[in-house]
Amino acid sequence: MRLALLALGAFLALPALVPTARAQVMDPEPLPKMRWSFDGPFGTFDRAAEQRGLQVWQEVCSNCHSMKEAYYRNLTGIGLSADQVKAFAAGITITGGATDDSGQPIDRPALPADHFRTPFANEKAARAANNGALPPDHSLIEKAREGGATYIAALLEGYRDPPAGMKMGDGMNYNIAFEGRQIAMAQPLHDGQVTYSDGTPATVEQMSRDVATFLTYMANPEMEQRKRMGVRIVLFLAGMTVVTYAVKRKIWSDVH
Amino acid sequence: MAGLHQSDFKNPVLNWFDSRMPILTMMQKEYGTFPTPKNFNYFWNFGALAMINLVIMIATGIFLAMNYTAHTSMAFDSVERIMRDVNYGWLLRYVHANGASMFFIVTYIHIFRALYYGSYKAPRELLFMLGVVILLLMMATAFMGYVLPWGQMSYWGATVITNLFSAIPVVGESIVTWLWGGFSVDNPTLNRFFSLHYLLPFMITGVVFLHIVALHITGSNNPLGIDVKTPQDTIPFHPYYTIKDSVGICVFLLVFAIVVFFAPNYMGHPDNYIPANPLSTPAEIVPEWYFLPFYAILRSVPSKLGGVSLMFGAIAVLFVLPWLDTSPVRSARFRPIYRQLIWVLVLALFVLGFVGAHRPEGIWVVLGRVATAYYFLHFLVLLPLLGKIEKPLPLPESISSPVLPRGPGGGGGPMPHGATAKPMEKI
Amino acid sequence: MSITSSDAIPLAPGHAGDATTTKRDFLKLVAAAGAAIGVGAIVWPLVDSMNPAGDVLALSSVDVDLKSITEGMGITTVWRGKPIFVRHRTADEIKTVEAVPLNQLIEPASDQSRIKDGHAQWIILIGICTHLGCIPLGNKPTDPRGEWGGWFCPCHGSQYDVSGRVRHGPAPANLALPPYAFESDTKIKIG
């Protein structure tokens, strides 16, 4: 081990000898610490926050962002009843999902078995409507970004006035959480943007956390079942380890 | 010679079966009464753990394949359908994805065990080389499996790794086109990778079988690295090592379960939850953690062919390791200098792992080069020299009497003849 | 391997006393039972993954518009991947099937029990022959409809009447009825 420790020391000393090459310009600010109800091995989703998040997502985000992998029926997982899901879906119009008798595509109200509506017909249409930028799909956004829910909330809360002297690209917005700090999406949430039916004040922070909770559920609909199973299985295996080790000790007791 | 096998089984049904096909007798001999050194420590669990892991991977893989679609337009969505709609699909996929990582953890520890206790030395050279073949097959399988979800990392990982072959002079480009079945990584590539990803585990199973055959000819090495001399040195595999392996299996499954149920994406990369986009490379592309040291070796040389050769050389050197190490003593316990160097090697590999995870600039380049240099220095220079200059500590007389000058009793143990100690051949 | 363990392997020397043996056996039993439970718990998710998935179960109802089906005509639609026969029966056909004495049938069932009250002109059936799963002919006017004017299975010659009841073997049972309801006089919802 002595030699290994010496080598470790040498490896650690090396950085001091070599100057860092890259200037750290416009990296995003480190993510703030946030606490979530779904953290930890026993964490569960906050149903009320999920449902508020759905409202924000539907009223604001869904105008530009798709959620292709999710179905309306998945909303039973955030505490809506089957009838509520049906009613929610019925308020949304799906274009081109069905045809009339002559084979022409028609609009129809969505069903629980439908995927979430995609706001733009294709990528070109999406870019044309968004200053050339493509709003990313939201089905897996929590898993597809370093930092997950915290990143989503930090991004939504991260809009600031650009520092003096910073050259912003055309139509770009300054955001301290975004890579390069220039984001094409204009600030989507403002205080009082939506009216929550449960009376919660709709601050930017509240809406950001709610929509991040909702999107975390949408990316991990299995999470509560997974953690519940996990606790049971870990306890079972821990017990099995103890029993097996006891049997091992017994069997080996006559070996010298 | 034809004729029924004389089976010792008392149960008439088992006896009838065993007389006609004596696999029960064989299992009894190889896993029941098989004389095994009695001084294994828990490092000797890892072969069995790797075996269990292989079974888990094949079982979950078969059921995943029932729901997976190997087509660029559907692969990503079909994986998401598995995660959301297939009953327990999320469990199958998380077990399979994290199972790959567990497989490499277990296998790397298994290899460390072999290096530390000199399990690669005569007469176990072939056994060790078969193990390296398994490692290579595992790497190919893991790489192709990672392509299947068709996320950003899948796509760009496939692009970068297949492009390694373009470093081969003259025919490189043609080989890459042949691998792709086109002019970029695309649907033909995905489809063949799926086919091969399904095939290779069964080839691994075959080589594992050969690995075990070779093991049961030479018998296992042990922490002292000395040969079995008397029957007192051994105990039957069952129940002693079946139960000891079971303890290890429980702990292994416990760790596995904690990862799968509470941190299933910890070892993955967020970018692979973004569908593949052939027109946009992610800002940082890194392979799965178990390839990072090799990836770092690849990048430590500023020459395409040089980097690729070095990376493959890092594995190739293991094939000749039994002949590079000139010391007649197996276990590092009795090799004062080697015992230090093996930890330096481990450290170098960890450093390479961290280097592989960072952009090759500044300090990381230097660290990568130093660690790469040590890796090859260790195997190609230090090990051959060490056999000549190192003074090994005195070896114990036998396994059953490690402290006494002379062991009780004499005569050959139940081990096959080939297990007798022999000085290593010099190169 | 456990088969071979108990009788064939001699234990190492120095067998412990009775009390320890009992304790060891009990521990072994617990360990073995735990292992059995563990293997079962591992196998079940694998087996269950082959059952219908969420998206398959979600697509479970279809609407059929009856307006365009004229008297004597039938159409075939699809529900859960199975053909569904929807037939508009004539008054004569209804009279004939209602008059059949039940003791003449292979699987006795009244026509009344196979339709919805007040909608005797509509028969809705799962169009799969109860013999070996072929699709019987008879929806198109040009199809053979068999001796009883209903459906004729081309595979092995089974024949059904306009109530979908089997009248001639080898099929053992009447055509099955899907769950459905009339949403209006001209529209049904299957499933």
Provide a descriptive summary of the structure in words.
The complex is a heterotrimer of chains A (256), B (427) and C (191). Chain A is mainly α. Chain A has helices spanning 2-17, 47-59, 82-90, 123-129, 148-156, 204-219, 223-252, and strands at residues 93-99, 105-109, 173-174, 182-183. Chain A starts with a helix and ends with a helix. In chain A, 32% of the residues are buried. Chain B is mainly alpha-helical and 427 residues long. In chain B, strands 1-2 form a two-stranded antiparallel sheet. Residues 404-427 of chain B have low confidence and may be disordered. Chain C is built from 4 helices and 9 strands. Chain C has helices at 2-8, 18-48, 54-58, 91-99; strands at residues 62-65, 74-79, 82-88, 122-126, 149-152, 159-161, 166-168, 180-184, 187-190. Classes of the chains: A mainly alpha (256), B mainly alpha (427), C alpha+beta (191). At the A-B interface, helix 1 and helix 7 of A face helix 4, helix 5, helix 10, helix 14 and helix 15 of B.
Mean pLDDT of chain C: 81
Radius of gyration of chain B: 24 Å
What is the end-to-end distance of chain B?
Answer: 43 Å
Helix count from the secondary structure assignment of chain B: 15
**Given the structure, what is the number of helices of chain C?**
4
Helix content of chain B: 55-70%
Overall pLDDT level of chain B: 91
Number of strands of chain B: 2
Quaternary state of this entry equals heterotrimer
- Shape field of chain C: elongated
Largest sheet of chain B: 2 strands, antiparallel
Tell me the strand percentage band of chain C. 15-25%
